[in-house]
Write a structure and sequence with these properties.
Blueprint lengths: L10 H12 L21 E7 L4 H6 L8 E6 L6 H10 L3 H4 L5 E4 L4 E4 L4 E2 L13 H5 L11 E7 H4 L2 H7 L3 E5 L2 H12 L6 E7 L1 H9 L4 H20 L5 E6 L5 E2 L5 E3 L4 H4 L7 E2 L3 E4 L6 H12 L3 E5 H6 L19 E5 L4 E3 L12 E2 L5 H4 E8 L1
Parallel strand pairs: 1-8, 1-9, 6-7, 6-8, 11-16
Antiparallel strand pairs: 2-18, 3-4, 4-5, 9-18, 10-17, 12-13, 13-15, 14-15
Helix pairs in contact: 8-10, 9-10
């Protein structure tokens, strides 16, 4: 198992380095422990997050980008978009921001939610339309508001004005795009115009989408990454000068799976009847909320049936071990990780299904603690 290294080698430490360069030097986490990267040398810094680009994928690719990879970094736990993107936008780990997976139980609402779309699980109804204020509910620090320089968010139009994005961009200027060329053009424009000192956060999602649908090792993902590499090379050449740096990383990597590696909880009544809430978290790291009188039954069943496919762990012990982060935890963190956590081995996944959910299968998955999922690259490009 590979858990995050929050002592100087994770995404949250990268954010601490950026905070130190552009704003407050007294954050919750130490900056990256590397002598090879001095952010003070640069007036403009771009942080481009390619959703799903694992360190091992990059190293095995034919892309020119791998020759500019300074080092690997660990993601956060769990190694998934909901937890990691929130770290990019807040500067803190899940230990503090409290979003622990795509499905997170919010005791304030007494329901399991999909935290990025801000909807109840199994529904497309926005919680904001029911009168819930996502900013007040999540109560996160906003990274951009901690910076003294101008800051920008470059994001797809389809997520730019979601409740989640609006609650986490703060004073940053926002730019939307629809295509890869438009994203690269927006970054180039920002680097070659306006104030000399600025921080630019940009996000690309298509690599992740194709990896889910076709598998991370698929030809479709390979072709897309080749196109992405070409576009970024062109962007770099068009952005030369003005003491600029482009950092490329990811929120997580991927591991591929197959339908026979899925444990469907609905097919195991002795297991399913123990749950007082639907599974939370991710198919690779699932939080289980158990009926008090069924805890022994659940643990006995899981250990006897699935010990070769998963690790059953006490959720409170995971918090105490520091896998979600360091320091003072979010006041509701324990409520958001259930009684026990299922951490999947090899490339197994676990799922349950609500009656309102359409069943699907993802060939590429993440959220676990394999090296493929946990390690992401730090690519450094001088523009």
């Amino acid at each position: 198992m590979s858990f995050p290294d929050y002592q100087g080698h994770s995404l949250v430490n990268l954010m601490a380095s950026l905070r130190e360069r552009f704003g407050d030097q007294h954050g919750d986490y130490v900056p990256l422990k590397t002598a090879q990267l001095d952010l003070a040398e640069y007036d403009q810094i771009v942080l481009l997050v390619i959703d799903g680009l694992g360190f091992h994928y990059l190293q095995e690719s034919q892309s020119w980008l791998k020759h500019h990879c300074l080092q690997d970094l660990t993601s956060v736990f769990p190694s998934t978009t909901a937890a990691s993107i929130t770290t990019f936008l807040t500067g803190v780990a899940p230990q503090q921001h409290g979003l622990t997976g795509w499905f997170t139980y919010l005791s304030e609402l007494q329901q399991v939610t999909t935290v990025l779309p801000f909807t109840p699980r199994g529904s497309n109804d926005l919680l904001s339309e029911q009168g819930h204020d996502i900013g007040k509910l999540y109560g996160h620090p906003i990274f951009f508001d901690q910076l003294s320089s101008e800051s920008y968010v470059v994001s797809p139009h389809w997520i730019l004005n979601t409740d989640f994005n609006r609650a986490h961009t703060g004073k940053a200027n926002t730019l939307g795009y629809d295509t890869l060329d438009e994203m690269c053009g927006a970054i180039t424009h920002l680097l070659t115009s306006g104030a000399r000192q600025k921080y630019i956060y940009a996000y690309w999602s298509e690599f992740d989408h194709l990896s889910h649908v076709h598998g991370n090792g698929s030809q479709q993902v390979k072709q897309h990454f080749a196109q992405l590499s070409t576009a970024l090379d062109r962007m770099l050449k068009q952005s030369r000068g003005r003491r600029s740096l482009i950092l490329i990383t990811a929120d997580h990597g991927f591991i591929d799976t197959t339908p026979d590696k899925m444990i469907t909880v609905n097919d195991h009544p002795r297991m399913h009847e123990c749950l007082r809430l639907p599974l939370c978290g991710e198919p690779r790291t699932a939080y289980c909320y158990l009926h008090p009188d069924k805890q022994e039954q659940f643990c006995d069943y899981v250990n006897s049936e699935f010990s070769d496919r998963l690790e059953l762990m006490d959720s409170q012990a995971l918090i105490e071990q520091g896998v979600f982060g360091l320091g003072e935890p979010h006041p509701d963190l324990l409520n958001r990780v259930g009684d026990v956590t299922l951490i999947m081995k090899d490339n197994y996944v676990v799922k349950d299904w609500l009656e309102t959910e359409k069943r699907f299968f993802h060939y590429g998955v993440h959220g676990g603690v394999s090296d493929l999922e946990m390690f992401v690259p730090l690519v450094v490009l001088q523009a």
